[in-house]
Amino acid sequence: MSRKTIGLSDDRLFDYLLSVSLREPPILRQLREETALHPWARLQIAPEQGQFMALLVQLLKAEKTLEIGVFTGYSSLCVALALPPSGKIIACDISEEYTNVARRYWQAAGVADKIELHLAPALETLDSLLANGQAETFDFVFIDADKENYLNYYERSLLLTRRGGLIAIDNTLWNGLVADPLIQDSRTQSIRALNNKLLSDNRISLSLLPIGDGLTLALKL
Ligand code: CA
Q1: Which tens digit of pLDDT belongs to each residue from 50-60?
Q2: Which run of H or E residues covers position 207?
Q3: Is the overall model pTM greater than 0.85, yes or no?
Q4: Residue 144 alpha carbon to ligand 1 centre in Å
Q5: Interval between CA 32 and ligand 1 midpoint (Å)
């Protein structure tokens, strides 16, 4: 029996994990390699996390999903490829430049018609979805945008998600900074505030996975 999660600081073990489990399609690998040259490349999720999110989408039999924070589109492409032909992603971002890369890969992968990109502050898009009667209609939500708004994104996402739907929140271990009391910048504090809120939130079932930079799963009850 193991007392704690196995560490992957050993590169050999991490490489082994990838070698026996990662099934990254060529189109995703190309996007990851192009994004690796980008100055903000660290904003992209890890490929094993993308594959895990695709599995979650399949498990949920998701049809309608929401992504808050697109960047160059790796996570949305993972989800889009896992959705059925009738599936849909409402994708929120503010950068035309970064999402132009995403659009190019959505086209190349043949999933562009599944993705509706909203280039606007995500809170505005979420509020308009709520105002348009789309509460409790989403099967899956991925939150991975500006950390200062994490609590706002979470509260709106919870309204938009159906019962039994899942909200996945990225970077909740924040490169370890959340556990260091000397770190008090606004982004770290916002992630801590969300983590603390979720612990006692009886509207959800909760798990925080040490995959990538920490991925919190909140299942709406
Ligand atoms: Ca992230």
Answers
A1: 999 999 999 99
A2: strand 204-209
A3: yes
A4: 5
A5: 14
